[in-house]
Design goal:
Radius of gyration: 16 Å
Helix content: 40-55%
Strand order of the largest sheet: 1-3-2
Mean pLDDT: 89
Distance between the termini: 22 Å
Strand content: 5-15%
Low-confidence stretches: 119-123
Structural class: alpha+beta
Length: 123
Amino acid sequence: MRIGKDLVAAAATPVVLGILAEGESYGYAILQRISELSGGELEWSDGMLYPLLHRLERLGHVESEWGASPSGRPRKHYRLSSQGAATLAEQRRQWDVVGDVLAKVWPDGPGSGGSARLALGGA
């Protein structure tokens, strides 16, 4: 299945903040986690992730620092800031509303078992 760009873009911030809420991570590991969480349905590129991480850092939602990797090469590690945690909580509330609306307009959607709850951003 191909997931539309608009939906991917709308979910990008809460997905990345949700992953960082699990703990500190770095770019490649975040990409792997997105693929894992989506069962391979979401395959993000570096070109999508890194501009988002840089924007989240500029906004104060994410903090970063350089550290060594097992191979010895420097690797930038990202973590959720307290402001990012508050933003994630607000995003979860917003996605809950969207999920509730979709559950009402798609009451018997495929694979929903009668419910179309969204699970984006941990909501």
